[in-house]
Design goal:
- By secondary structure, the protein is an all-alpha fold.
- It has one domain.
- Helix content is about 80%, strand content about 0%.
- It has helices spanning about 1-25, 30-35, 40-75, 75-85.
- Helix 1 (about 1-25) runs antiparallel to helix 3 (about 40-75).
- It is elongated, with a radius of gyration of 19 Å.
Length: about 90
């Protein structure tokens, strides 16, 4: 799950940088994205939105999974994630 979240976050970041370069002609990818057509810019915006929404969905699923696992195993996994200590 963590790998999936990191991949989605990386894709959302990359497409966001591309979108910023295409629409504002600014940012680290401005030189590459300059001259992008409006249709391509709109498509890029949709792709960026998709990756962003998928990232949020994965975060919600991860939190839900941790809560359900905590209830089923009768231990506070969230506290263990924060403190780094788990009951033996």
């Amino acid at each position: 799950m963590v790998i999936a979240q990191l991949v989605m976050l990386a894709l959302a970041t990359l497409t966001g940088l591309m979108l910023y370069g295409a629409t504002e002609a600014a940012g680290p990818l401005a030189g590459i994205m300059r001259g992008t057509s409006q249709t391509s810019g709109e498509s890029l915006q949709e792709i960026h939105e998709l990756f962003s929404n998928l990232t949020l969905i994965l975060v919600v699923l991860h939190i839900g999974g941790a809560l359900v696992s905590s209830l089923l195993q009768r231990e506070n996994l969230v506290r263990a994630m924060v403190t780094g200590r788990k009951r033996a």
